[in-house]
Design a protein that fits this description.
Elements lengths: L2 H8 L2 H11 L1 H4 L16 E2 H8 L3 H13 L3 E6 L2 E6 L1 H14 L1
Antiparallel strand pairs: 1-3, 2-3
Helix pairs in contact: 1-5, 4-5
Keywords: DNA-binding, Transcription, Transcription regulation
Protein name: ArsR family transcriptional regulator
GO molecular function, one term: DNA-binding transcription factor activity
């Protein structure tokens, strides 16, 4: 776990908001119609849906998602031409424990 990368990723309000929305994707995003029914990526949201909700440009959102993925906060999976993102709950639990015990 690279805590410096995580803190950098969380230092931006829009990135924190994306992470919050992805905690309960069914409340914040519409159905993911291009996600195959048999996909084993529950809670995955496509970049386009995230971009539409943030009202930021697609390049900015892609950059944010990439940074969050590199920090380990998000997981991604590609289906056809669409890339889906979801929270990495395991890393978030580890980071929470780090915050609780180390800081």
């Amino acid at each position: 776990m690279d805590t410096t990368m995580i803190f950098k990723a969380l230092s931006n309000e829009a990135r924190r908001q994306i992470l919050e929305w992805l905690k309960h994707p069914e409340q914040h995003f519409g159905p993911q119609i291009y996600l195959p029914k048999d996909a084993d990526f529950k809670g995955g949201i496509c970049v386009g849906s995230i971009q539409a909700k943030t009202e930021l440009t697609q390049s900015v959102v892609s950059s944010y998602l990439s940074m969050m993925q590199k920090a380990g906060l998000l997981e991604s999976r590609r289906y056809g031409q669409w890339t889906y993102y979801r929270r990495n709950e395991q890393l978030l639990r580890e980071f929470t424990e780090y915050m609780r015990n180390e800081l």
